[in-house]
Amino acid sequence: MLQLRPNCECCDRDLPPDAAAMICSFECTFCPSCAADKLHGVCPNCGGGFSPRPVRPARLLAKFPPATERVLKPGGCAAPAQAKGGNHGQYSAQDHPTLAAGALYFLQAGAHFQD
């Protein structure tokens, strides 16, 4: 079951369970703006791509609540090509144009979910 983390790891924006958010396969969580504009569709932690975070139905939130622990990258985020260590810098938006395009599409299509 997804954790539904409560904030963007880059800018610390609140991301309630029904908010538009992007996640990688490890559930690193980012707001659509950071995922597209700062990270260019590539996770700074693992180098993978993003997918839209599913919305858990409101009727199931009491039984399966979202996470409450906030995860925040000290100093904000850098695109993977600028980060150091691990697999960072292995991928770029140029390597994954469909992921970057998907993040931008999600920003446009999911705008009605944002505050």
Notes on the protein architecture:
- The structure is a single chain.
- This protein has about 120 residues and is mostly helical.
- It is about 15% helix and about 5% strand.
- It has helices spanning about 30-40, 95-110; strands at about 20-25, 30, 50.
- Helix 1 packs antiparallel against helix 2 (about 95-110).
- It is globular and about 35 Å long.
- The model is unreliable at about 80-100 and about 110-115 (pLDDT under 50).
Strand order of the largest sheet: 2-1-3
Q: Biggest sheet, in brief?
A: 3 strands, antiparallel
Helix content: 10-25%
Note the overall shape.
globular
- How many strands? 3
The run of helices and strands is EEHEH
Give the N-to-C terminal Cα separation: 25 Å
Mean pLDDT rating: 79
Secondary-structure content class? mainly alpha
Can you lay out the helices and strands and say which pair or pack?
Blueprint: E1 22-23, E2 29-30, H1 32-38, E3 51-52, H2 97-109
Antiparallel strand pairs: 1-2, 1-3
